[in-house]
Amino acid sequence: MKSAIWYRLLAGRFVTFGIFIFASAVAMSSGLLLLPMTAAAQETTPVQQRPPALQTGMAHAGVPTSLAELVREAEQDNPEIAAADHGWQAATHVPKQASAFPETEISVQQFAVGSPRPFAGFSNSNFAYIGFGASQDLPWPGKRALRGKVASLQAESLREDSDAVHRRVIEALKVTYFRLAYIQQTLGVLQQSDQTLSQIQQVAEARYRVGQGNQQDVLRAQLQHTKILQELVHHHQEEGQLEAQLKQILNRPQALQDIVAEPLSPTFLLYSDTQLLQLAEEKNPDIRAKQQMLRRNEAQVELAHKDFRPDFMASYMWQHTADQFRDYYMATFGIRLPNRGRQKAELAEAEQNRLQAAQEVQAEVQGVLSEIKQQYVLVRASEERLNIYKGGLIPQADATFQAGLAAYQANREDFETLLGNFLDVLNLDLEYRNELAEHESAVARLERLTGVSLP
Predict the structure, then answer these.
(1) Would the pTM of this model clear 0.90, i.e. be above it?
(2) Which end of the chain is more exposed for a tag (fewer CB within 10 A), N or C?
(3) What is the DSSP string of 254-309?
């Protein structure tokens, strides 16, 4: 419904603009000049609306949803986070399996004489018997513990991977939320700017009516008005796409009510780059996952050495022939010798996997530290730019526009300069809000990279 209203509004604007252009062309061909005049434009009209310098710009009447609420919802409902958690929980049950004794084997034997039928000749032959036994494989001492250690470290790596997935999802949620907040805030700014521009257009029309301006000034104002309408359409398009992305992250139905973001405020970083780098080395889940994999591969190397040791097998059987014969008791102890060629290859593989894991840890550390440094530089530079926008550029542009407006109404300044001053205020306001959204996104990336929530 909201999109349909905007499309009808846009169509109406274009129809009015097209009628004006067509009428102007016909009049100019007849030696006349026609302008779309209103009763309020018969005399000079002062502009009451100040330019949108750092206004709230809220274009939605809905209740804003805080980022903290959406983060909690994503933590509970996001399927990627849930899948990663289930994978880690499943891996926690593997160490007990890996360290357990091999299965005990129970056997029943029957030996017949003179006939293939079961139990034939059981009571009339010294050789026929029935027996019950059990056998158990016994790994070399320490092997089971090492296998459990390998599986436990694998589970720890998956736990860190689960934390990394969690932080990546929350980062994506925050970055999308910040962009949506920027789009929704600038929608209001553009609408208010369009109202201000309409009043400027009325002043230009009134000046032209009394012979103090020209038709080009009015046309320029109408052109800028159409550009703002076009920008509003682009903003609504991006707003719809961002809301769809947020609903996907939150696992919400796409038909559910749209999300209204809260106004953004800057989060100033309280950590130095050295502190952030230290936090990353200690808490970054991707680094910790790689470190756990390195420890797992080191334990796998130790296990490969241990596999050169033989395993054992013990069994016991009781045999019964008939009541007139004495029972038989048989105990067996065996040694399973390893294939040394195969074990050497297994050890070489484990050593290479360990070396690979060590290099992957180093590469992950370097990549994370480099990205932290880049994001830190971006955040610090962004903080300086935000201060320049808010404390210098925007107030200066606002003052220049107000002075130029008064000068234009007194016929001491041309319309082109006034329009340029108006666009400076509008563009600087939009740039400030975009810079603020990028700043908050960079802080969100630092939170993922360091593995902590930054105050």
Answers:
(1) no
(2) N
(3) TTSPPP-BPPP------S-HHHHHHHHHHH-HHHHHHHHHHHHHHHHHHHHHHTTS
